[in-house]
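sry for the spam today, last one i promise. struct tokens for design, 82 residues
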């Protein structure tokens, strides 16, 4: 999915976390330049990604939005990413 995300306006990075105790549990964190960029992707591109992944999903993904408070890994300024 990374090539699709990288083509989206405002995309910064993607981090995928896989549980070591529950192999069917995965969390994907995407970082965007702005909330507007993230919302645009959700409206225009997200359905394509979920369609591609549908055979791998046991349930529908849950979307939650957070503001970055601090980051050393991504060097994202607080309040500058969605």
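last one done:
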């Amino acid at each position: 999915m990374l090539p699709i995300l990288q083509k989206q306006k405002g995309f910064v990075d993607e981090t995928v976390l896989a549980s070591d105790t529950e192999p069917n549990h995965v969390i994907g964190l995407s970082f965007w330049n702005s909330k507007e960029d993230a919302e645009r992707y959700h409206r225009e591109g997200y359905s394509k990604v979920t369609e591609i992944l549908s055979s791998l999903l046991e349930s529908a993904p849950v979307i939650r939005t957070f503001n970055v408070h601090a980051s050393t890994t991504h060097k994202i300024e607080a309040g500058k990413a969605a």
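The longest helix spans residues 35-44. ok im logging off now
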